[in-house]
Amino acid sequence: MAVKIRLRRLGYKKHPVYRVVVADSRNSRDGKVIDEIGTYDPNQEPSAFKVDEDAAKKWLGNGAQPTESVARLLKQAGITK
């Protein structure tokens, strides 16, 4: 089972809001999740990114792979290098 940290899309048309979730890579984008660790709102100025640092580090330590967009957000937040 490949575990990914990725964004789950919420919000309405042309106004996305995302939740940062840990999910099996075989599940759909908005499908079943293992854990919900944060939120990301690109509509605010500046973009609002909140994540549970301890949970993110725990999942990364357990081998979860972040998607490109989540990896960029985690790097900006100072959680990964």
State the helicity in percent bands: 10-25%
Coarse morphology = globular
Strand order across the largest sheet: 4-3-2-1-5
From the alpha-carbon coordinates, what is the Rg to the nearest angstrom? Answer: 12 Å
Number of helices: 2
How would you describe this structure to a colleague?
Strands 4-3-2-1-5 form a 5-stranded mixed sheet. It is an alpha+beta fold and 81 residues long. Helices cover 23% and strands 41% of the residues. It has helices spanning 53-61, 68-77; strands at 3-12, 15-24, 35-41, 48-51, 65-66.
Properties at a glance:
alpha+beta; 81 residues; single chain; 5-stranded mixed sheet; 41% strand; 2 helices; 5 strands
Tell me briefly what this model is.
With 81 residues, this protein is of the alpha+beta class. The chain is 23% helix and 41% strand. The mean pLDDT is 92.
Blueprint of the fold:
Elements: E1 3-12, E2 15-24, E3 35-41, E4 48-51, H1 53-61, E5 65-66, H2 68-77
Parallel strand pairs: 1-5
Antiparallel strand pairs: 1-2, 2-3, 3-4
